[in-house]
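Following up on my earlier thread - several people asked me to post the actual chain instead of describing it. Fair enough. Here it is, all 403 residues.
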Amino acid sequence: MADAPPITVKMQAWVYFVTWIQYAANHITRKCYTNVKNVMIKLGLSKMVLGRMDAGFMFTYAFGAPLAGQLGDMYDPSMILGVGLYGSAACIFMLIFGMWNHLGESGPFIANTYFLGVYLVFGFFQAIGGPVGTAIMGNWMVTPEARRNRGLIYGTWTTHQYLGNIIAPVIIVLCNISHAKWWWGLMWPVFINAGWGLVCHFALPATPEAHARKEAAEKAALTGTTLNTVPEEPAKRGITIKEALQIPSVAGYCVAFGFMKTINYVLFFWLPLFLQTHFEPDTANMISTLYDFGMMPGGIIVGVVSDAMGGRRGCVIVVFLLILCPLLMIMALFADTLNTFTLMVMLACMGILIGGPNNIVTSAVAADLAEHPSIRGSKSALGTVVGLINGSGSFVAGMGQMD
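Reply from S.P.:
Thanks for posting it. Predicted structure:
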């Protein structure tokens, strides 16, 4: 067995960039779809079908995340990541195709079967990006410097979702300004997902060993020689969900993340509706973005502070959630009477306090848990751990949205 190949900062930066854009592409797709729902309703797709699509997405995402994590741990994660983006592009195109052919007006059975079926599959493909992308990051961020700054690295990396949420409405606005057909608001995410899927599949090295093998093979092809020192890819041995649950603290974080995600979903869905009853639509949209903007630095703050505390991320997360509790109580009791400035400050603070723990649990915390001595025999556990935590959180949050 050859020595472990060197890991360069240049390659770490490339992996960081590709996986960051990959997850942003997932959020661009979801947000663009959300922004064209009103058009789909006007074209004949019922609100009941759209509601079922959203509920179905939550649960296929929840159950798909652990499975996706295992697939990424057992097989080539770069290929699995590409498949997730290809599948997402195909599902969104099928939604466009269904609207082109007026399937939403073809009766409840056809509308439910086609659109709900497509969106259920879409939920699984979307579930791939989080656990598999994190697993690839985990394969590369293993140098001493990266380990010392794991919270900072993953804290900045988890801003990918907010990049996607910002780009999506820009795409819709540009389509409207150019007087393009409404479906171009979905077609651009199709192109983005399919194109970046190719980048992930063919240009993203899943491990340092895979990168070294590719470089050695290219060198051999150029020189016309045969290299016998190509590093061997270590055997893939993922862990089962049962083994992941036996890692200390994993089950606890699964439950805790469920409550974190429930709070996030409640604010995500309820906040715009609440604000529009008190402000003009444009003002309400501006104020609601403060919550999203607060979530961006939240993960970075938790990551940096926990790095400074020697990786004791649980302590920092608990402090953030304890500070969040009184703010939630104030919002619940006095939201209707708060003045605008106080409301804006509270929303930004709540974004930081829920975004920090929410972002860091499925990245830096999961990376810490995946290195626990109880699974020392497996180097391929991070995807399963992330998928389990993320899927559990989505399931609890989905249940929390049901009346």
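The mean pLDDT is 86. That should answer part of your original question.
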